[in-house]
Amino acid sequence: MANLKTVSKKSKAQSMGMHTEVLTGRTQQKFFNPDEAENFYYFGTYDVDFNKRTELDVKDMTAPEANKEIDNLMSQGYGTIVIKNPQGKHSLGVGILNKLNLIFEGSLGYFGMGSCDGPIVRINGRVGWSCAENLMAGKVVIEKNAGSCFGAAIRGGDLICKGSVGARTGIDMKGGTIIIGGDAGAFTGFMMQRGRIIILGNVGINLGDSMYDGTIFVGGEIGSYGSDAVDAELTKSDQDWLKRKLKVAEIGENFDVSKMKKIVAGKKLWNYDNLEPTEKKGAI
Amino acid sequence: MCGIAGLIHRGKSSNVGSELQGMLQALKHRGEDSTGYALYGDTDGKNFIMRFKVGENVGEGSSSVMEDVSVYDERKKIVDQTLAEMGAKVVKEERTLPYSLRYEIDYDTKDLLDFSQRIESIPGVEILSMGKSLEVIKDLGNAKMVCDRYSLDKVVGTHAIGHARMATESGVDIKSAHPFWGYPFSDVSVVHNGQLTNYWNNRRVLENKGMRFMSECDSELIAVYLAEKMRDGATLEEGMKESLTGLDGVFTYFVATKDSLGMAKDTMAAKPLVLYESDDLVAMGSEEIAIRSVLPQEIDTYDPFDGEVKVWQI
Asked: Of A56, B70, B76, B188, which has the fewest CB atoms closer than 10 Å, so is most exposed?
């Protein structure tokens, strides 16, 4: 572990102007050595086979019991799990740090699919507040509507709602992509720091309020702009990216992306770089 | 936190007491300090139904005190005398608990203000509801406990709203529990989830206009605010729309009248609400699981947007 206090030479990131702060104290960062790979264990991961499929009826289970059973099935190598009768229960499917094909036959309550890293999820119903909060990677598709705080603080992955969503969608998001097929409520993109939000329908008041960075694309009407949110030019490359994303998301197939509005942060923040985490790794 | 739930059957009656109990019990994790029901039952519409209390059920932080049953008996006698003096005939009388009573009253008046003021001038007496269909029942404990205590599971009617309370702004007692009656309007009730930050400013203004507050609970303001708007000629929906700017803070609330049910959500959309709407039923609650207790099959639900007001008729 490096002690930054004793490092006199500028790091490569500093020499590239990516950050200029003087660090003191001990860093919490742990460096990974590929030669010691066998000594590292990523908690909660299993080798699963997507062709190995099973069903799980959670009607009479509590959320912890259901989540524990999903983990148990993954440990047995099941790569495709169909959840029956979720019936609006809260906190289902949280903390999955694995590749997994997960299908919910019904609706979820609050905090569904929170803190996940890697699964491909399809929810054939609606979701309540804070769906897929802190998603790191993977894809979550909701066939109907979603509640408020949809995709709060996500870092990566694709989060798709084919219906409409409530307020504060993408609040504090730090990466990834959120795609909304219908309308979105007030304060969409509130304090977003990175990533992209695509809304094909209308959006409520205070869009992108206090956003640091990131991009919001809107196909319909905007209730009002929040503080720091401004219009930007929709480039050809933006349009290509939007078409590709909508196609992959199986949503808005014939949507005319050339008429979408692009909203970005109008305020340049001190000591802030706008590289995505993966891009930053590449630069270093 | 608190949880609210409501439902309205359109074109038919149902066992709303049992249905609302299921919805509120599903929300008990949002608060079980007290639970309240506003049930709109099937009646012949001839007599007023007055639910009132002659004492308190005192919980943590309450400013009230427990009293002897003999005190309740004395207050009840004075209520009976006052009703007789006003020419109101008690057709049916039920005393579910020592402090909680239900009267069916044969009384021909449209001025419930004078009636209510005379009854509530008796120290320790509060009218919980007054109307020809509405009955407000509220007490300490979760939905099932209150339902069992007052035998509400058999109540048949068209619509109902209810509240599971986690006490934050005032103590645990019946006077601070929801729903609140829209005093002095017949058959108007309100439940609220949230926090109102201009409660005292509004209360001072409304009290100067002659409106009455019975508790220190900020949610009571909504009932009084709407009652004052309707007193001045506004429709229920107009009053609700005005409340979006007149009330400050975060809130989702339901209001019900004899033949309608409405919801309003503040402009920040900071409090949750999930809504299901079909041709013959509207059901809504703070969480999807409340709706699932009456509609276990897969259904389409949604969150109303910020600043939204909706009203449905039976």
From this structure: B70
Report the CATH number at residue B306. Answer: 3.60.20.10
Which domain covers residue B31, as residue numbers? 3-313
Q: B305 and A204 in contact by Cβ < 8 A?
A: yes
Measured between CB atoms, which of B270, B298, B305 is closest to A125? B298
The two structure tokens encoding residue B148: 């069992």
Confidence at residue B108, expressed as pLDDT on a 0 to 100 scale: 87
- Residue B297: count other Cβ atoms within 10 Å of its Cβ: 7
Q: How far is B24 from chain A (nearest CA, A)?
A: 15
CATH number of the domain at A252, please: 2.160.20.60
Tokens at B86, concatenated: 């006003």
B-contacting residues in A 171-230 (Cβ below 8 Å): 183, 185-187, 204-205
pLDDT confidence tier of residue B215, bands split at 50, 70 and 90? confident
Contact assessment for residue A127 and residue A107, using Cβ atoms and an 8 Å cutoff: yes
Task: Name the residue range of residue A157's domain.
Answer: 49-283
Q: Are strands B34-41 and B134-140 parallel, antiparallel or unpaired?
A: antiparallel
- A125–B306 C-beta distance less than 8 A: no
- Name the band, by pLDDT with cuts 50, 70 and 90, for residue B184: confident
Q: Which of A106, A128, A185 sits opposite B269 (nearest CB)?
A: A185
- What is the rounded distance in angstroms from the CA atom of residue B65 to the CA atom of residue B84? 29
> A89 at the B interface (CB within 8 A)?
yes
Could you report the predicted ipTM of this complex, rounded to two decimals? Answer: 0.81
Work out the minimum CA distance from B311 to partner chain A, whole angstroms.
20
Q: Based on the structure, what is the number of domains in chain B?
A: 1
| A223 in a structural domain | yes
